[in-house]
Amino acid sequence: MSEIAFFGAVEIGLVYALVALGVYLSFRVLDFPDLTVDGSFPLGAAVCATLLVAGVNPWIASLVAALAGSLAGLVTATLNVRFKILHLLASILTMIALFSVNLRVMGRPNVALLMQDTVLTPFYGLGLADHVVRPLVVLVVVVAVVLLLARFLNSEFGLAMRATGVNARMARAQGVETDFHTYTGMALSNGLCALAGALFAQTNGFADVTTGIGTIVVGLAAVIVGETVLPARAMLWALVGCVVGSILYRLAVQVALSADAIGLQASDLNLVTAVLVAVALILPRMRLKAASKKREAAR
Amino acid sequence: MITVNGIHVTFGRGTPLEKHALRGVDLTIPEGQFVTVIGSNGAGKSTFLGALAGDVIAETGSIAIDGVDVTRWATPKRASLVARVFQDPMVGSCTALTIEENMALAAARGRRRGLGFALRGDRRRHFRDRIAELGLGLENRLHDRMGLLSGGQRQAVSLLMATLAGSKILLLDEHTAALDPGTAEFVLGLTRRIVEENRLTTLMVTHSMRQALDYGDRTVMLHEGRIVLDVSGEQRAGLDVPHLLALFAKQRGGEDITDDSLLIG
Ligand SMILES: Nc1ncnc2c1ncn2[C@@H]1O[C@H](COP(=O)(O)OP(=O)(O)OP(=O)(O)O)[C@@H](O)[C@H]1O
Ligand SMILES: [Mg+2]
Which keywords, in A-to-Z order, does the entry hold (chain B) (predicted)? Predict the structure, then answer.
C-alpha cells in the first residue's frame, strides 16, 4: 500500500469514526436499531456543501449540518416514541424522505467544492503534505468528540440514557424520563453522522446524494471490529474502540482492494462490508453453539 | 400515607380480551404502615401495585400519596415518591451496568439528572459503605456487572437501591418468589429491617399466607379486582394460616383450593 493510500484510508476511517460513534449511541447505548444514518450522513454533506458554496464560514456550516442531522434523528425518534412505529420502519421512513430532502437542499444530485474554503484550508501550507493534513484535522475533531461523549455518558444524565437502552422499565421506575433520553440520544447520534457527512464533503471536495448508501453498515462494521479488538466496558475505551475499528476496517478494505490477486473493485465495497458484518454477527452465535455442543458431548 | 379511592383499571378495552382487572379499590394506608397483600393468581395484585407506581393509569377514582394527587402522573414522575422491587430480579436492575452504576441510578431517583459525574469518589465510598451493610461481601464487587450476581444478591441490592433516595412508599411485588427458601428468608429479614429503619409505608405482595401474617401490621386480600378482606391489629394477631385459608376459600365461593399455590407456607 502506498503512503498516500495509507493516509487516505486513515482519513476516511476517521471520518467514518464519527458515524461509528453515532451508531454506537443508537444501536448499543439506546438499543435503537436506526437506519436514519443512511440519510443523515448525506444530509450533513449536502447542508455543509450548500452553505460553503453560499460563502458561509466552514465551522458554522459544519455545525449547522450537524444540527440538521439531529433534526432528522428527532423525526425518527418521534415516529417511534410518539407514534409507536417500529424503530426500523420509523428510521427507514426518515431515511427515504431524506433522499428527497437532500436533493432539495442541494438543488441537484451533487455539488462540487472546488475553490471554497473548508475547515481544512487554514492548515494546508503549514509545511505538511495535504494528504497528512486532512487526517490530522479530522483526528483532532474525532478526539474532541470521543472525550466529550465519554464525559457525557459517564454523567448522571448519560447513565440514565444507558439505562434507558438496557432496561427501560427499571429506568422509568428510577425516575428516568426514558422518552426524553431516547430523543436526546437519537439527536446526538444523527448529529454525529451528519457531522461526518460534513467532513466527508470537505475532505473529498464534493457532496453527492448517493454517498449515503450503506453508511449504516459501514458504521456497524466499525463498531463490531472495535468491540472485537478492544473489548472494553469502560465508556472511554468502548468509544476509542469505535474509532480504532473504523480505521482498521478502512485499512483492511484498502488492502483487499489493492491486492490484485483478489480482483476486487471499489464498487464491490458494499458487498464486502455486508458480508463482513454478517459474518461478524453470525460468528459469536456459532461459537456459542459450538461451546454448548462441546459441553453436551462432555456430559 | 396512601389514599386510594375507587380506582378501576380495564385492560384491552373494546377487544375480545377485555379484562376488568381492578373494580373499585378503596384503601387508606397511614404513614409507616406495612401492609401485606394476598390473593389468587389474576386477582389484580400486580395491577394494583402498578396503579400505585404509575405503570397503569386508573380510569376512574383517585390516588394520593402524602396528600398529593398523583392519579395522572406517569411512572418517572411518581418515582420521587415511590420505590419498588420487582418479582423478577432481571426486571429490577440493569444487568449490563455495574453494581455501582445501578446504585448511582437509584440514588438519583426523583432528582434532576445533570451533567456531573454519576460516580464521584465520595459517592463510591458511600455506596461501598451501604452495600457492606448487607453482609454479602459485595463491597469488593462494585465494578462487577449486575448480571453476574445471583438472584438473591440482586434482590438484596435492589432493596438497598430502593432506600438510596428518599421515598414515601415502598412497593414489593413477590420480591422473594424467585428465590430459594433460605435466600427468601434472608431477603425478607432485610426487608423488615429496611422498612423499620426508613419508616417506609410499604405494600408487599406475597403468595405465602405465613409471610402475609408474619410480616407487617396489616393484611389485605384482593379477589377479582376488589378488596375482600382487610385485617389488622388484634383481629389479625388472632389469625393463623388455617383461618386465613378458610377465609380465602369462602371468598372464592367455597371451592376446593388444595391445588392452589396459596397453600405454600
Ligand atoms: N398488561 C395487561 N394486559 C392485559 N391484561 C392484563 C395485563 N396485566 C394484567 N392483566 C390481567 O389482569 C388480571 C390481573 O392481573 P395481575 O397481574 O394484577 O394479577 P396478580 O394478582 O398479580 O396475579 P399473580 O398472582 O399471578 O401475579 C389478570 O387477569 C391478567 O391477565
Ligand atoms: Mg402479580
Answer: ATP-binding, Cell membrane, Membrane, Nucleotide-binding, Transport
For residue B102, the one-letter residue type is N
The yes-or-no verdict on residue A272 having pLDDT over 60 is yes
pLDDT in tens, B34-46: 999 999 999 999 9
Which residues are CB-neighbours of A18 under 8 A, at least 6 positions away? A141, A142, A145, A192, A193, A195, A196, A199
Contacts of A157 (CB under 8 A, 6+ apart): A181, B113, B114, B115
Q: How far is the CA of B39 from the centre of ligand 2 (A)?
A: 9
- pLDDT, tens only, A153-194: 999 999 999 999 999 999 999 999 999 999 999 999 999 999
* pLDDT reported for residue B80: 93
Question: Euclidean distance between the first and final Cα of chain B, in Å?
Answer: 30
Mutational test site, ligand 1, from B7, B8, B11, max ligand atoms within 8 Å of CB: B11
* B70–chain A nearest CA distance, Å: 14
How far apart CA B221 and CA A129 sit, in angstroms, is: 80
**Orientation angle between helical segments B99-107 and B121-132, nearest 10 degrees:** 100
- On whether the CB atoms of residues A5 and A258 are closer than 8 A, the answer is yes
CA–centroid distance, residue A228 to ligand 2 (Å): 41
